[in-house]
Amino acid sequence: MEYGAVSGMENTDIPEKLKLEVLEKIRPTELEREKLLTIQEELASKVKTAAEKLGIPDVLVRMVGSAARGTWLSGTHDIDVFISFPEETPREKLETMGMAIAREVAKHAEHAEDRHAEHPYLNIIYKGFDVDLVPCFRVASASQIKSAVDRTPFHNDFVKPRVKGLEDEVLLLKQFMRGGGVYGSELKTQGFSGYLTELLIIHYGSFENTVHAACSWKPGQKIDIMQHSEIEHDEPLVVVDPTDPRRNVAAALSLDKFCMFIDHCREFLKSPELRFFFPASPLPLKDSEILEKLEARKSTQLAVVFKTPDVVEDVLYPQLYKMEQAVAALLKEYDFTVMKTGVWSGKSETAVLLELISGTLPNVKKHIGPPVWVKTHAEKFKEKYQGADGVFGGYIENGKYVFEIQRKYPTAKGLLEERLMTCSLGKSVCKSVSEGFEIIEDAEICRIEDTDFRVFLRGWM
Length: 461
Hints:
Elements lengths: L15 H11 L3 H24 L6 E5 L1 H4 L8 E9 L4 H16 L4 E6 L3 E7 L2 E10 L13 H12 L3 H13 L14 H11 L2 H8 L6 E3 L13 E5 L2 E5 L6 H16 L16 H11 L2 E8 L5 H21 L4 E8 L3 E8 L7 E8 L3 H11 L5 E7 L2 E7 L5 H8 L7 H8 L2 E5 L9 H10 L1
Parallel strand pairs: 2-5, 6-7
Antiparallel strand pairs: 1-2, 3-4, 4-5, 7-8, 9-11, 9-15, 10-11, 12-14, 13-14
Helix pairs in contact: 1-6, 2-4, 5-7, 6-7, 6-8, 7-8
């Protein structure tokens, strides 16, 4: 198998000693494996007992995900328990019976929380493990799925035999992606899923091969392990799902995270070091550092701050990204130059951040009308503005009438305070913002003392 080489990296080998050092930190111990197996068996037993108690027949239990495939990182305690029902089960009945079984199991848990993907499922904390109890249909093949989760057991069946002997390679790639901030396909991160990392290792054969290959990736990169898909996708990376050729496993991966991974691979091969797997944790910015950065940047920092909506992250973040774009568009509409935008969300407060070249514009604005020779429109335009209140003066420039008029919103803060609710906001975010928000500017940002926010600011500023 040939992989594209990157200039200056053609003969770069990753030291075996480094890989072993990383694996010592991330490979689960025998004790961890035994505990996981015990917990899986307990959960399977409790699901079966619950189904019997509730008189629900023909229920099968499957452990899926990285914990079931031996590709989980030490210290992570995630278990996916799939409660499968016959294919002909009506969806409403599957949801009702599946959640009834899950709630029965949750009686033995430390914590339980209802969650919703395509249909409801239950997340519980059981003996320190983060467990998802997911009802699904037992279909004959992934091409016949009735809900998105139905294909997951087929992922297990495909990956498990093919990844045998390559588990360490998967662990290395997962930790490397973590180190680069690109691991996780949830909507907050928009990175690489666990299943995607496994498929990359199956395709390229090793962690080292994957890193070398990724250095030459370009948007539109396609990987089709089973060579069975002609369907076109327009995402940056297309990895055809071996169990369902219609699906791109990398659909959640954003262009920026795709490029961040390429950059991470290139930098790593220049100097393979432990820090690419375990970067130093950034320290929260102190007030004095924020003020220094503000002074050095000479730009305007704005934050729209409101109470964090009580919804799961996969519901919240798409709405925050939507708000981020809408607020930037509003500012641009009124002539403010937006340099960058970002979002942060904590337990109590959420903020949409914007950096502007300036948060203040002149009171006067140039308003250009039609060419003088377009008689009807030109005369109407002139009549409207000549001598009107808030007009500083008029003249002809490049053959067009121009009037200098008073700007309605000379400050970005004032614009947002008055017009924020006209922006397109998602349902949960809109409700929270309508209940109250604050626009803070420059040094006022020091008001937010949340440690995670201060860490976010270090990357932001």
